[in-house]
Amino acid sequence: MSSSGNLFSRVYRKTSQKQVQVLGIMTSPRKGGNSDVLLDAALAAARDNGAITEKIIISDLNLIPCQACVDVRDDGRCKIEDDFQKSYDAILRADSVIAAGPIYFGSINAQFKMLIDRFQCYWRAKYVIKSIDELMVKRGGFICVQASSRNDFFENARAIIKNFFTTVGIEYCREVFCAGLEGKGIVREEPNCMEKAAAMGEKLSQPR
Ligand SMILES: Cc1cc2nc3c(=O)[nH]c(=O)nc-3n(C[C@H](O)[C@H](O)[C@H](O)COP(=O)(O)O)c2cc1C
Fold first, then answer.
1. Looking at ligand 1, which residue's alpha carbon is closest to its atom 5?
2. What domains are defined for the chain?
3. Distance of CA 12 to CAs 48, 49, 127, 155, 208, Å?
4. Residue 29 CA, closest ligand 1 atom number
């Protein structure tokens, strides 16, 4: 294992084939919580399948919310110099992205929304300035957990993640939604959820 600093961790495996790079984005502030456990299961399966994995824990990042600058950069990069720049690079270099997080008040949590909003520069460069001409070449998965059994909450979250993925050129391929989970890490007692997360990691680490 090699590390590139405190914020990101990368795991490499030796293989002669070109390795798929899978990025995990953990949006919960609860390390070892349900979304973290499921994301780790997905990333472990991806590594077992020969992929390089990388993980971002949003709550470890120094991030401020989008400031709606009028003079945002034309190349898709945000002009605010904080850890967004590393997150941006990590997403751009990934072949597959798996985002994992909890439902808070019926939607994705603030930590995740804050990161997503910072991609407004990318949206502007792609759709307004047209300086980015990317095809939807990346694959994406979304893992979401909640305490209740409200499907409409998952649907709210899915709509936001699909919009985000589309903006940054990620095809929404797979989702794992697990309801009825409140205590930290209790998803370990739900083999069905654990298996689905591993299957997502295995699928999204296959070469195209
Ligand atoms: C601020 C906050 C708001 C929450 N809102 C909801 C909610 O609207 N619906 C729900 O089912 N669970 C809600 N939950 C419960 C979490 O979604 C649940 O505990 C989840 O398993 C936490 O995931 P984690 O362990 O990955 O952090 C909320 C939890 C917190 C802390």
1. 104
2. 19-63+73-204 (3.40.50.360)
3. 11, 12, 35, 35, 19
4. 27
